[in-house]
Amino acid sequence: MTGLRPYRAIASARFRMLLQYRGAALAGLWTQVFFGLVLIMVYEAFYRSAPAVRPMAFAQITTYVWLGQALLAMLPWNVDTEIRETVRSGAIAYELARPVDLYGAWYARAVAQRTAPTLLRAAPMAVFACAVLPVIGLGEWRLAPPPSWAAAAGFVATVACALVLSCALSVLVNISLMWTVAGDGAVMLFTTAASLLSGLVIPLPLMPEWAQVGLSWLPFAGLFDLPFRIYNGHIAAGDVAMVVVRQLGWTVALIGSGRWLLGRGMRRVVVLGG
Amino acid sequence: MAGAFGLYRAYAAASIRSQLSYRASLVMTTIGIFLVTASEFVAVWALFDRFGQVRGWTLPEAALLYGMSSVSWAVCDAIGRGFDVFGDMVKTGGFDRLLLRPRSTVLQLLGQDFTLRRFGRLAQGLLVLGYAAVAGTIDWTVGRAVLLAGAIACGVCAFLGLLVLQATSAFWTIDKLEVWNAFTYGGLTMSRYPLPLYRPWFRAVFIFVIPLACVTYFPGVVILGRAEPLGAPAIAGWLAPLAGPAFLALGLQVWRIGIRHYRSTGS
Question: What is the pTM of this model?
């Protein structure tokens, strides 16, 4: 396993660096609590207005919403600003001189970028949603524990797969910067797709019935929706294997296409002397 | 006053010219923002598609609130961008330069950046507003049209007040506080749905503290000709939007206090 050592080192250095942003995490926490409360009140009103419609139990919805707010930083929603700078300034040429695989190095950075902020935010958010809400009399809005040990174990497994999938998507966004140097428009569209189609903006089971199959087969559902529905019992714990296959299938496909695109992109790199 | 307006026009024109020199990038990001904001409406549409109605409100009716708040926020975001980047100006000491000039700081910040690409958001908001006006059963009168325009203008003031308060916090904390995002973006999300959906304590915040409900919900109910279930008097829909300009005036007052506390970071 010595071949992996440099990548582990890159990931752990970035990870420790990103753990420093505790103030930002705390400010984000308050905003996410607020958004969670607004969303839950809106869903609650819709559920009370149409008692016949139950794509998912209300208690499952609140759990789904809080999981999304807690794990928000795990979505591939932003580019790696340092990579963007290397692409812009042309310093990416130095990368060619390094004795590591560029895709592997970028993937290692993505692992740190997706885990460190998530760890900082998830724990306080979980405390709020599990413990504080019932104390202040809003117990019906809380983040409920999973219905069974099997669901809990399934959640842990599928979140781990969601992480590797999210990193593959993150690297792909970074690679796209090689073509769209300004990049804001394309990245914006990707971010939107990721937050809408993963279930962050609205739980996917609340989307129209005809869209359900299509949504669940897109890679984005594997980021949030599928793991969350295993947690709250909307997907039976017995179906975990199926979810994992989808997540890892997409991960392999995205890593493959990412490597191919990066190779093409690097061949196009023209470095001006100086 | 006339001089101030002329100066603002000159600032805005310079900003617009500079953005027009990167036309392709401007078009791309404008379209990008249009699609991003359109996806926000997808969530609203999906809920009504599933549940049909909420507390007797249908999609075209809720779309009126959505359109009003989106257009207000888009205009505020386009003109108030200077306040948005204000935290960086304090950090770098760039604010010192503004203080040296013999013009009001508010005016200079407003003229800082007139962001054209926000038109993507404006276009989306206007489209939803158009849908609400046509698809709904609104009995349009001159009075209601005037109320709609007035409420949107007051909404711009209310959002601008929030931006000013957010920027003001930077006088004490050096960086602008992200916690305000809960009220700007959270308030924007809140104001897209009818107010009775929310719990009483939550409603009270957005009526009496940050008056976003006063510039969308209360005039919206009057325009739609709906009965107001929260027990507000009939005249409230016409007068409540004035809370927007009042809130902005309050924000500017706090801003003036903040300036007196300003100590340059010195670089």
Answer: 0.90
